[in-house]
Design brief:
Layout lengths: L21 H14 L3 H17 L2
Length: about 55
């Protein structure tokens, strides 16, 4: 079977599921809409921000 989708160097083959409160989910949606990106991209940016904070310590 041939792979589907665009080829990428940054393969995203791991899944992670979380439960959010309605307030947190609303905030996530607001951020995604304000930045015109997906909710997943907001989460990826958040992880990068936390990593950057750790690296500066």
């Amino acid at each position: 079977m041939t792979p589907k989708g665009r080829p990428t160097q940054d393969k995203k083959d791991r899944r992670f599921e979380i439960r959010l409160s309605q307030d947190t989910y609303n905030t996530l949606e607001e951020c995604a809409k304000a930045l015109n990106i997906t909710k997943a991209q907001v989460i990826h940016k958040g992880i990068a921000l936390v990593r950057a904070e750790i690296d500066t310590k």
